[in-house]
């Protein structure tokens, strides 16, 4: 298995755990879809679409990821975010749009 893929998949599963803890009981991972978002969480009131990043991100990479998220067409009641997994349990969360 590709090392970068494995690292990203692990971060996505950790993100799913964070979604559960944040009150989103229904979650799924869009593995292999090549879409904008990696994981989704839903509760009775709303949904959250998350792009998960790992490793070092330059300012230009971050700006490109945020622009891609902002351009995504979202249904009503759906929020979007970028979560950057820094490793060892550390995360930076960006709410987009």
Give the topology string: H per helix, E per strand: HEEEHEE
How does the major sheet shape up? Answer: 5 strands, mixed
Shape: globular
Using only C-alpha atoms, the radius of gyration works out to 13 Å
Query: What do the pLDDT scores average to?
Result: 92
Distance between the termini: 34 Å
Q: Please work out how many helical segments DSSP would assign.
A: 2
Give me the side-by-side strand order of the main sheet.
Answer: 1-2-3-4-5
Strand tally, please?
A: 5
Beta-strand content estimate: 25-35%
Helix content: 25-40%
Content-based structural category = alpha+beta
Query: Which regions contain 5 or more consecutive residues with pLDDT less than 50?
Result: none
Write a brief caption for the model:
With 97 residues, the protein is of the alpha+beta class.
Your description of this structure?
With 97 residues, this protein is α+β, with helices and mostly antiparallel strands. It has two helices and five strands, in the order αβββαββ. The chain has a five-stranded mixed beta sheet with strand order 1-2-3-4-5, sandwiched between helices. A hairpin with a 2-residue loop joins β4 (78-87) and β5 (90-96). The longest helix has 19 residues, at 3-21. The chain is globular and about 35 Å long. The relative contact order is 0.17. The mean pLDDT is 92.
Secondary-structure blueprint:
Blueprint: H1 3-21, E1 26-29, E2 39-42, E3 47-54, H2 59-71, E4 78-87, E5 90-96
Parallel strand pairs: 3-4
Antiparallel strand pairs: 1-2, 2-3, 4-5
